[in-house]
Amino acid sequence: MLYAYYSTEEKSISNTEKELFFCIHKSYDLYHYLLALVPEIADYAEKRIEIRKNKHHPTKEDLNPNTKFVTNLVIQQLRDNKQLNAYLEQKKLTWSNNPELIKELYLLMIESEFYNNYMADRNRSYLDDRKFIEKLFNKIILLSEDLYNVLEEKSIFWNDDVEFVISMIVKTIKRFNEKSDSGQSLMPLYKDQEDRDFAKDLIRKSIVNHDELRELIKIHSKNWDMERIAFMDILIMQLAITEFLFFPTVPTKVSMNEYIELSKFYSTEKSKNFINGILDKTLKDLKNSEKINKIGRGLVGE
Question: pTM here?
Answer without folding.
Answer: 0.90
